[in-house]
Amino acid sequence: PAPSNPSHFMKGAIIQLATGELKRVEDLQTQDFVRSAEVSGGLKIDSSMVVDIRTSQQRPGLVVLHFTVGEQQSKVTIDVPPEHPFFVFGQGWSSCSPERTAQLYGLACHHLQVGDVCVSITLQQPP
Amino acid sequence: VPVFPWHSLVPFLAPTQSD
């Protein structure tokens, strides 16, 4: 079966930032996410470091990514298809299989590696 | 042309709080 490809990762997809500005997905930069979180209220950007990448035993075709998230270094695990792009701080779009990402989305990616720090979002803690 | 919100592109990773 064909994988379900969220079309927001297709090259050329129009993304609305929290500032109202529109950008193509391939033109996004780290600052766009940081600024958007700042003005959105209630959301904040976390730094999520990739600490392990494995192929899933339970769900063939998926990869299991282990992250340590935020200042508390909480451990979070997610299963994703290898073509799923993540935005790495200072580097841009990255996936476990840049070849598949290019095939399916047309989006140019770096190779996601252990040690990469990805942009993730979480709820802002009340003061 | 569809327009997607910025927050749909990055994962929501909620750390599990333990206090």
Summarize the structure.
The complex is a heterodimer of chains A (127) and B (19). Chain A is mainly beta. Chain A contains two helices and nine strands.
Please give the structural blueprint.
The complex is a heterodimer of chains A (127) and B (19).
Chain A: E1 14-16, E2 22-24, H1 30-40, E3 43-55, E4 63-69, E5 74-80, E6 86-88, E7 92-95, H2 98-105, E8 110-111, E9 117-123
Chain B: E1 3-5
Largest sheet of chain A at a glance?
A: 4 strands, antiparallel
**How many strands of chain B?**
1
Percent range for β-strand residues of chain A: 35-45%
C-alpha geometry of chain A:
globular
Percentage of residues in helical conformation of chain B: under 10%
Order of helices and strands of chain B: E
- Helix coverage percent of residues of chain A? 10-25%
The poorly predicted ranges of chain B are none
Mean pLDDT of chain A: 93
- Radius of gyration from the alpha-carbon trace of chain B, in angstroms: 14 Å
